[in-house]
Amino acid sequence: YDLWLRYRPVEGEWHKAYDPAVTALVVQGGGATIAAAAAELERGVKGMLGHRLPRTGSVAADGAVVIGTPATSPIVAALGLPLAGLGDEGYLIRSVTIDGRRATVIAANGEKGVLYGAFRLLKAMQLRERIDALDIADAPKLKLRVLNHWDNLDRHVERGYAGQSLWDWQKLPLHLDPRYTDYARANASIGINGVVLTNVNANAEILKPIWLEKVKALAGAFRPYGIRVYLTARFSAPIEIGGLKTADPLDPAVAAWWKAKADEIYRVIPDFGGFLVKANSEGQPGPNDYHRTHADGANMLADALAPHGGIVMWRAFVYAAENPEDRAKQAYTEFQPLDGRFRDNVMVQVKNGAIDFQPREPFHPLFGAMPRTPMMMEFQITKEYLGFATHLVYLGTMWEEALAADTFRPARGTTVADVLETAVDAAAPTGMAGVANIGSDRNWSGSQFDQANWYAYGRLAWNPQGGAEAIAREWIRMTWSGDPATVDAIAGMMMGSHEAVVDYMTPLGLAHLMATGHHYGPGPWVSDLARPEWNPAYYHKADAAGIGFDRSRTGSNAVAQYAPELADRFGSVKKVPEEFLLWFHHLPWDFRVRSSGRTLWDELVVRYDRGVAAVAAMQARWAALESRVDRRRWEEVRDFLAIQREEAQWWRDASIAYFQSVSKRPLPEGHAAPP
Ligand code: GCW
């Protein structure tokens, strides 16, 4: 339940070092956010050092922690600290001397920065960093760091594997579950500053007054932690709850309805963040229904929000059954020509890959291709296609791979992370969204290790250049143990876990092979669904001759949506990275795989085996940690790994059996036959 904010007692030398360095708290004024920072410091110090942190009005002895902004605290102001480059949300932590006494100052331009700095100081102690000569300056690289909850008003969470929605609508607004505060603390500790409360597929109900009162209560619980609330806006809301005949974005009555709705929302929630919209995707209504563009739709909503400073996050996850174009191409085809046509307060929110949160996809070609449009990354933290909550899959490495990908736009060396960080103009928003894996489960995320994905998401939203391994290690030390051998063992498990799931589900660039609807377990044989692009067969195209989706020039030419250098690399069988081989090419079963010299068929089987073996290796590693971590969590992980092992075998055996029925090839030597 405590997540990475466990604050367990610090022993021995470290206790001796920290204890005299944190003796009192100096808070001079400030609002609810500084109060939250102070409360967190008190809680953390009590937990880790075992003593209370008395509040004093001045630095009266060694060891004071002074927190504030130059505006709230005369002591902070008098220090004349270099805060200029830190923006609204950055912070500076320094060991200083005030009136001849040693002190630590947490200073920022805004209260949120103070809160983030407080969490950072506590983290230093959690990680056993020295705190006697501190000089840490940090600021987020993206402005909007948002969780997208796919939560419905009946508390069912779409693709959620951690129980019900946290939002207990029935008891709101009069009862605020204390979990809302712990949720906000956890988010603030990793810098998340926005949450979309509702599912992108939700109906328009949430926009009615009775629900807005409940949203207001949640907003109030989150506000001290620097978190704004956003809502999904169903495009047809003017018809469904407004009594209009149309939702045409160019109809003045529709625009007026949204404007009035926005005014109403801001009367209730003055710092409301804005709307997230899924339009003309998977059956959702949108501007295309009226032969208008996505820009027409987004701009109409943006104009309603603009007077209040709100933002529209407009998703580019679009594809249509009627469209015969390669699904991987459709979003680019539809959005790229609209570059420069969106209002300043619209962000186009793009999934990391062009299909849909698959275990591995090349980065979405829209990144770098719309330089005049603020573009937001959408990652999926919940593991819809990665084994739900029971499979141990650390997503930090997968996200790092996407963020570090070179877009070659405008030139070599511009990564996806660079694209996200580069605001189209000084005032323009930048951001990242993560589809939350949080629910009412006691462990929040459905499993112990899925907490790491929430954590890693926040850290990467703060700094998209961050390294997945460093993030994993700090999470482990805060969550499991500081013992170096234990940290190494767990980090080893996490760092190899994504490659393992790719191997046992979708090796060599295969994608979308999961069973229909629930997406749990394999279903590569499915080919009779009414919507062609929902059939796994659409993606693997396996037949007697070979396997893979030809997206090169001889095929759908999706490669042409990338910069020329990448089109060339991805489009060539010789140059394409092996992990994307079958994403971009349809190849004969006897094709020789470069790295191993094996035939494609043999290589496929080897990879499936390798994935299962990697899970077995994780089990062995975990077994060896039995005495190193607490029993309850150790047992849960042990059991979940056993489930994962069974299911990895299921994936392997079912996939190989199916592909063998098509390839008619013998199993390579050394393949472990199914038990
Ligand atoms: O991944 C697919 C999911 C849908 C989801 C959709 C989307 C919210 O299967 O459940 O709907 O993507 O991202 O809109």
Give the neighbour order of strands across the main sheet.
7-8-9-10-11-12-13-14
Measured as a percent range, the helix fraction is 25-40%
Structural class: alpha/beta
Q: Radius of gyration from the CA trace?
A: 26 Å
Which second-level CATH architecture of the largest domain applies?
Answer: Alpha-Beta Barrel
The CATH homology group name of the largest domain: Glycosidases
Assign the CATH class of the largest domain. Answer: Alpha Beta
Q: Which secondary structure elements does this structure contain, and how are they paired or packed?
A:
Layout: H1 12-18, E1 24-27, H2 32-49, E2 55-56, E3 64-68, H3 74-79, E4 91-98, E5 101-107, H4 111-126, E6 135-138, E7 144-148, H5 179-189, E8 194-196, H6 209-222, E9 228-232, H7 237-240, H8 252-268, E10 274-277, H9 294-305, E11 311-315, H10 327-335, E12 346-351, E13 375-380, H11 396-403, H12 416-421, E14 431-435, H13 450-462, H14 468-479, H15 484-505, H16 536-540, E15 546-547, H17 564-571, H18 581-584, E16 587-588, H19 600-624, H20 631-663
Parallel strand pairs: 1-2, 1-3, 3-5, 7-8, 7-14, 8-9, 9-10, 10-11, 11-12, 12-13, 13-14
Antiparallel strand pairs: 4-5, 4-6, 15-16
This protein binds 4-O-methyl-beta-D-glucopyranuronic acid (GCW).
The site of 4-O-methyl-beta-D-glucopyranuronic acid has 11 residues, from loops.
Domain Glycosyl hydrolase family 67 C-terminal: 446-670
EC number: 3.2.1.131
Subunit structure: Homodimer.
